[in-house]
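REQUEST ID: PR-0412
SUBMITTED BY: lab tech R.K.
PRIORITY: routine
TASK: structure prediction, single protein chain
INPUT:
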Amino acid sequence: MFLPLLELVANTEEQVSGEQMGNLSFLVDGLKAIGINLNLTVVLLSMLFLFSMKGVFKFLEQYKKVVYRQFFIRNLRESNIKALAKYDYYYFVNADVGRIQNTMSGEINKLAFSFDLYMKVIQQSMLLIVYALLAFLANPQFALLVAVGGMLTNFAFNSLYKTTKRLSRELTKNNHVFQGLVIQQVAQFKYLKATGLIHGYASQLIDKVYDIERSQKQIGVLNAFMQGLREPLLIGVVVVVIMVQINLLGGKLALIILSILFFYRALTAVMQLQTYWNKFLANIGSIENIETFSQELKKGKEKTGKHTFDRFKNSIRLDGVSFYYDETPILQNINLELYKNRSIALVGESGSGKTTLMNIISGLLKPTHGIVSIDSEDAFKINIATFQRRIGYITQDPVIFNDSIYNNVTFWAPKTPENMARFEDAMRKASIWKFVMEEQPEKEETRLGNNGINLSGGQKQRISIARELYKDVDFLFLDEATSALDSETEREIQENIDQLKGKYTIIIIAHRLSTIKNVDRVVVMNKGQIERIGTYKELIEESESFKRMVELQEV
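STATUS: complete
OUTPUT:
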């Protein structure tokens, strides 16, 4: 815009008039209306002012883009994390772990990149509108050619857009599978290494890496093709426009330079828009996946009541409880009552329903039929999270975080004198205090390594028990907590658990029947039903199936 102004003011000593600017006379007339007459000094100062303002707005654009981008990504991560925390356990066990991992990490990063591309698409769209408007003011014919040229180039790129979207979806699926394989390799590393299967498993990972590379390469080639095609198309359209303007419309090249400049800028915006849009579509699989994932998390949100659970006072009662997985019955007509500070063991063959029953008692699963009452209140009316905070859960595979012993036990609680006292009490109850404070050079700050690699099985289990005791719980759920230990370590930990009897309501799933001799009641499960309930001694005398299990284990 300044080129003709500079030319005019440089070639005349007189003031520039609006007529000399043709269709852009409104610029000169507008300045005169506010008392400014154009001369070389005014034009140069105007240039300086406008480009200074451009710098200011460029800073504001970049600043706001960073702010909005980080707000967008943080808000999305936060909402997904909260939604996953409220995700129903039933839906979680049927979910693709690799997809969850990939969506919560890699896909979010792609979405952040897509956000930048989308903002650039908007920016180029605004530039296109501005330049098209200026081109129209300078020469209406050029405005029409801009529109035609833009539509024609869009048709040329349309098939490329479709191919990019398809490849993006394939890439997202391959990333899900790859993340799932990595998670399983890390979780099963010891087994894979010890059995020599790790190299075969690694081959699967490498195959998936090649699949991912193939998709990314194809997307990259499409982007490169569009980049290479952009300039030739651009110049081709400009050449056609000039020829049309001069040969068909009778224009003169010297008089249409400004219009050609606007036209070129407009077409540049079109091409940039198409390039950014194709790069945006290259991440469409990630965008669609995150959107679907968020919807699934909301759809699978755990249904819970509003009443807050304070402390366990009396009993948990199950009346006619049945549970079906799809159409398959897992539990049928369970009637059971668990009393405060009493211990109960669930025994039976594999597939008898022990774990499912414990999951229902702990609130992880909702019964298909029947009623679960906690202190005479329907469990559906209780905020299940407040109930579960009163549960200590100890599994066959101890949960150990790659952090210090203190953080593992206290779950990253501040290191106050009060918390240290609770930490010491929990460690002593779990019989691990001496090992930590006398045998470890860094004491409670000793790091445990990945999955507690620096500890024995018994030490890991004791750390796990200490964590649950630190929480000040009402219940202790032990899901075959000692079955992976050697006999001597199992006996020691069992003695620790026996010392907790009468202080907590203890529910045990036991494979080794020698560990449940001292419980208050034993529930014998068979094919999803309760076969018999009684003390260990009573069942030895009255239940043939229980007696047979005891004899097989030579207890």
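NOTES: The longest strand covers residues 328-339.
REVIEWED BY: pending
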